[in-house]
Every structure is written in structure tokens, then in C-alpha cells.
Amino acid sequence: MTRITAFLALSTLILAPGCKKKEAETAPAAGAGNVLKGATLPEGDDAKAFATTLMTHKAVDIKPTDNGDMPFVYKTLAFSAENNGWLADAVLGQGADSIPCQEIGTWKIEEVKSPSTAVMTWSVNKTTCAGRAPQNTMRVEVTIKDGNYDVSMR
Questions:
Q1: Helix runs in the chain, H state only
Q2: Are 75 and 60 in contact (CB under 8 A)?
Q3: The 117-127 sheet, strands edge to edge
Q4: Which of 34, 50, 101, 117 would staple 128 via disulfide (CB 3.0–4.6 Å)?
Q5: Who's near 4: CB < 8 A, 6+ residues apart?
Q6: Which residues pair with 92 in a beta bridge?
Q7: Is the pLDDT of residue 17 over 50?
Q8: Residue 92 near residue 72, CB atoms below 8 Å
Q9: What three-state secondary structure class fits 116?
Q10: Cα(102)–Cα(62) distance, integer angstroms
Q11: Which of 86-89's residues contact partners 24+ apart within 8 Å by CB, and which partners?
Q12: Of 65-69, 70-74, 122-126, 142-146, minimum mean pLDDT range
């Protein structure tokens, strides 16, 4: 009996790692469901595809408005599902005269044109940028291709 018990114990140890590996291989991959959890979106697969790309790629060097003589650029702009929020690290001015600041807001997808293009509304809820007011709303058309953003003000 001791040989049978030893054999069963050894078999269990040898097979156990294989079982765990197989479970990991068949476990669902982290995907859109996790990224989109909590987001408010229009219905449809195109909206889900666009929003997933939106939240997994940061935008860089976006000019949300024309401030005349004072350039204003979102150096990085990141979107999240939590409260449909976004955070921008911005720069007001240019070169040695530039002043870093931040804006925080919310986003909404108004119309989905394709899995890579949508018309959106970005609302500024808080800003540390001089001359910028909270409650400012921008309507934009966003195309995301290969992780690069093309943003057109509407």
C-alpha cells in the first residue's frame, strides 16, 4: 500500500503543474470588458472598440483650443472608464516661457462613425491652467489609428 500511496502522491505532484498551466491557457485574457468596466457608452461593438482604444492609448501634443498668442497644448491626455474621466498634463506658452498645468474632466461619445472614429464631448471640470475656465466644453471628432490621435475641433 505504501508504494501505491507514494505513486499517487508523486502523480499528483507531476500532474498538478500541468493542470494549472492548462487552466491559465484557457482563462479569458484581460480585454475590453475590464478596460470598459464602469464607462457609459453608446450601444454597439464599434463604440466598445473605439472606447477600448481610447482608454488604452494616451494622446500626445493635442491642441484643444486656439489661444491666439499663447499656445496651449495637452502634452499627454489619458482617458479612463471611471466616471468617464480624463486627465491632461498641459503646457501654456512655449519654450522657456511655458507654464505646466493640468486639466481634469469628463468625456462622452456622441456619435460613433467607425471602430476608430467618434464625435465626442470633452468637459473641463477642473483646471490649473491660467486663463482657462472650468465648465468649458469642447466638441471634437477623434480618430485613433495605430495609437495616434487625430483630433478635430467641432
A1: 2-26, 32-36, 45-56
A2: yes
A3: 59-62, 72-79, 85-92, 99-114, 117-127, 137-145, 148-153
A4: 101
A5: none
A6: 72, 99
A7: no
A8: yes
A9: coil
A10: 13
A11: 86/122, 88/62, 88/64
A12: 65-69
Looking up cell 468596466, which residue turns up?
Answer: 37
User: Looking at the 3D structure of the chain, how many domains does it have?
Assistant: 2
Q: Given a cut of 70, is residue 32 above it in pLDDT?
A: no
Verify that 67 and 136 share a domain, yes or no: yes
Give the cell for residue 31.
480585454
**Domain of 57, in residue numbers:** 33-153
Distances (CA, A) of 13 to 10, 16, 19, 131: 5, 5, 10, 67
What are 67-122's pLDDT values in tens digits? 566 789 999 999 999 989 999 999 998 888 899 999 999 999 999 999 999 999 99
Q: Which residue has the higher pLDDT, 17 or 51?
A: 51
What pLDDT does 23 receive? 29
Closest alpha carbon to 91 in 80, 81, 103, 78 = 103
Same domain membership, residue 20 and residue 65: no
